[in-house]
Amino acid sequence: MVKLVYIIVDGMADLPIRLLNNKTPLEYAYKPNISSFLKHATYGFPSVLGKLAPQSDVGVMADLSYDPIKYSTGRGWFECLGLGMAPKDGELSVRVNFGEVKGRKISSVRTYMSKEELHLLEAEINEKVQMPIGFRFKVGEDYRAGLVLTSDKEQFSEYVSNNEPGYTPKFYKTGKKLSFATDIKDLKIHDIKPLRHGAKYTAELLNLFIKNAIKVIKNSEVFILRAKDNKPLPNYLFLRDAAVRDPHLPAINEKFKRRWAAITGMPLEKGIASAAGMKLIEVEESQDINKNFSEKAESVAAAMRSFDCVYLHIKQTDSVSHLGKYADKYAIIEAIDRIIIGRLLRELNIQRGDTLVMTCDHATSCELKRHINSNIPVLIVNRKFGQNKDFGEANCRKKHISAIERATDILPFVVALK
């Protein structure tokens, strides 16, 4: 069977930047290998979540054809599933950030730490935090972690607020839940609050966990050493997107009658891919971009020999966007072109009928340092299409095909190509 490689570059889309000659990082980046694929290419420019600025969980679900409003029960479920925490229906799964506060003001919601530091804090928290119910805490990458609470006393509720600013939960009449990105206007520390009747118990337990965990963290060796070295301190925990139910995504192999593999080192994307029934190919998220991309490129090439479709997730573009580093962003896109797309030039046989898709889960503005409500650029390479010009937001906006109106339309359209 012909092969499909589906690349989702986290937060790749952006707004034009004056210092880049009013181009976006994607448009500004030198992309000779992508240009080689443009002999047989078309573009899409779909919306992800209508008028709302999506989070990554919403964007990835939509890109993989799962309507978030139909399936999302809260990002926390995917996050904890991807961390290997095996959340069950009735347990409370939450995404956690280590962050820093000064006084009662938030300094940063992201305190980046080494893997060694993160694992030391994980051990301290699991061993020393006292709670009236059971819990599991596990760290992920950089500043991320997952929390699962268990209780046989009362039922948990997903109807609680986030204490991380910039993400607002939204609940639908269908019973589904998702969060969307917003401006950060208030940097004061806020407790987690119940948003509906019956959620007070959950909110109180989450606030208690934060309080008790902070005490443990501040007495840890990691904290003491970082304070001595004048490094950013992980002196607060920011929680968001609590979930209590399995989203029950339909199996993607059955949905499209093709065997799927997923290559990602990030917990959220691992969780979504696992929930969809993809085979997870283990990769490390190395800080060395060249090493990281080379390993991912080889993993894609190897997976293509055993699977019909390979989903590759790339995180780095979003991370630098949140820090406002637009030069790093276009440099990362150039590295994707050089290392990953360059490898795929040798692996994909477009004349035979293979397909390459490259898109993103949402736009992240380097100037605003947050997710924004914007349509996403989509590159589709297939023998059915003719020559096209440079892949970027402006050309996708001008020349997009009408068959792809929403991100959920991408995969059905692509899989139907012959």
Strand content: 15-25%
CATH superfamily caption of the largest domain: Alkaline Phosphatase, subunit A
Uncertain spans? none
Average pLDDT, rounded to a whole number, is: 95
Q: How many discrete domains?
A: 2
Number of helical elements: 15
* CATH hierarchy, class of the largest domain: Alpha Beta
| Main sheet summary | 7 strands, mixed
What is the gyration radius calculated from CA atoms? 21 Å
Care to describe what's here?
This protein has 418 residues and is α+β, with helices and mostly antiparallel strands. It has 2 domains: 236 residues, Alkaline Phosphatase, subunit A; 166 residues, no CATH class. It is 34% helix and 21% strand. The protein has 15 helices and 17 strands. The chain has a 7-stranded mixed sheet with strand order 2-17-14-1-13-11-12, with helices on both faces. The radius of gyration is 21 Å and the shape is globular. The termini are close together.
Set down the secondary structure blueprint:
Blueprint: E1 4-9, H1 25-28, H2 32-37, E2 41-44, E3 53-54, H3 56-63, H4 68-71, H5 75-82, E4 92-102, E5 105-108, H6 115-128, E6 134-139, E7 144-150, E8 167-171, E9 177-181, H7 200-218, H8 221-228, E10 236-243, H9 252-256, E11 260-263, H10 267-275, E12 279-281, H11 289-303, E13 309-314, H12 316-322, H13 326-347, E14 355-359, E15 363-365, E16 370-372, E17 378-381, H14 393-399, H15 410-415
Helix pairs in contact: 5-10, 11-13, 12-13
